[in-house]
Each structure stands twice: as C-alpha cells, then as structure tokens.
Amino acid sequence: MSAPHASCRWAHGRRRARERGVVLFVALIALVALTLAGLAIMRSVDTGGLISGNMAFHQAALHRADIGVEAAFIGLPTILATSKDANIANQYFAVRQPVDGNGVPTTAAWANVPCRTNTNAVVDCSTQDYQVRYVIDRLCEVQTSGSTAITNIQNYCYADVGNGKSGTQGSFGAIFSGADSVYYRVTVQVSGPHNASAYVQTLISTN
C-alpha cells in the first residue's frame, strides 16, 4: 500500500513544479510588458517635452519679429529720402518681388541680410540669440523695362490715393498720379536656438 502512495506524491510534486514554471514564465512576460510600457511612457514624456520646448522657442522667435518691424519703420524714411527708386542690396527693393508659397520674397538672400536691433542698428548676428533681419519691397510693378523708377504711382503701385474729397462740402477734387501714399511690404525673418524660425509681414504706407 505504501508504493502507490509514494507514486501519487511524486506526481503531485511534478504538477506543482510545472505550475511554478508556468507562473514564472507568465511573470517574466508581464515584467517584459511592464518594462516596454515604462520605456514607451518615458519616450512619450521626452517627446512631449521636446515638442513643448520647440514651440516655446518658436513663440519667442515670433515675438521678436516686432523688433524687425520697428526697425524697418525707423529705417524706411531714410531709404525713401536717399534711394526711393533704386534697390539697396540686402535691404530694399524698389519694385514688388516674387514670393514663394508662404509669401516670402524669393529674391531675399537672408544669409546676407544684416541683423538689426529695434533702433535699426546693425549688429553682429553671431552675438544674437535671436537673429532679426528684414527686407522691404515697394509694392509697385515695373513701369519701364530694366528700370526701377516709378513716376506713375497711381497706375503702377499699390497706393492710397484717398477719396478725393476736399472742402467743407466734400466735393471731389483731382486725384493726382504723382500721389506718394505707396504701400511697402516689410518681411521680417527671425532665427533662434534649436533651429527656431519665424517670418512676419506687415504693410507700411507713407505719404
């Protein structure tokens, strides 16, 4: 009677050993799954932090575009007084320039455009965390082939010629083709850390 009893205990021990082996295998699979999940969460957090950081740099670049607009506003009167009908390399175009799909003038060689402060002073780009540059083009079409001089402002430029009203009764007077309330397009480029960049455009009208 003792032999069958011993055989039963041996069989029962084997089953328990197999069960422990299955439990260990399942535990290992669960550990691997938890490890992969932890790695995925860490990568997701890192990616989210990277995206947030890049967005912050981009927003900072966008905010600094105001510096370029202010500099262009300060510099435009001097440009018009000295070179209204002639191009100034890396700063001013006397006629409207072609643009790319984002509206940025394709003829602007940004690497050669000087960096500016909000007072329009030229600074060394390498010393600036955010490099602010601008170019201006006069929104006029070519009047004479090969020339950037414009004499017929009304017909060849985007210009504000007014409503022609004069006097207390608002009677219409003459609208002169030499009116000089021309629109100028200012394109500002800002380059910052981590390849952050922004472009901003605005229109300035003079009279």
Low-confidence runs (pLDDT<50, min 5 residues)? 164-179
Mean pLDDT: 79
Helical region count? 2
Radius of gyration from the CA trace?
A: 35 Å
How much of the sequence is in beta strands?
A: 15-25%
Please write the string of helix (H) and strand (E) elements.
Answer: HEEEEHEEEE
Helix content: 40-55%
> Would you count the extended β strands for me?
8
What oligomeric arrangement do these chains adopt? single chain
Distance between the termini: 120 Å
Strand order of the largest sheet: 1-4-7-8
**Number of separate domains:** 1
Secondary structural class = alpha+beta
> What does the main sheet amount to?
4 strands, mixed
Shape, principal axes of CA atoms? elongated
Verbal overview:
The chain is an alpha+beta fold. It is built from two helices and eight strands. The protein is elongated, with a radius of gyration of 35 Å. The relative contact order is 0.14. Residues 164-179 have low confidence and may be disordered.
Give a short overview.
42% of the residues lie in helices and 17% in strands. The strands form 3 sheets. It has a 4-stranded mixed β-sheet, covered by helices on one side. A two-stranded antiparallel sheet has the order 2-3.
Question: What is the topology?
Answer:
Layout: H1 2-83, E1 92-93, E2 115-116, E3 122-123, E4 131-138, H2 153-156, E5 165-166, E6 171-172, E7 183-191, E8 197-205
Parallel strand pairs: 1-4
Antiparallel strand pairs: 2-3, 4-7, 5-6, 7-8
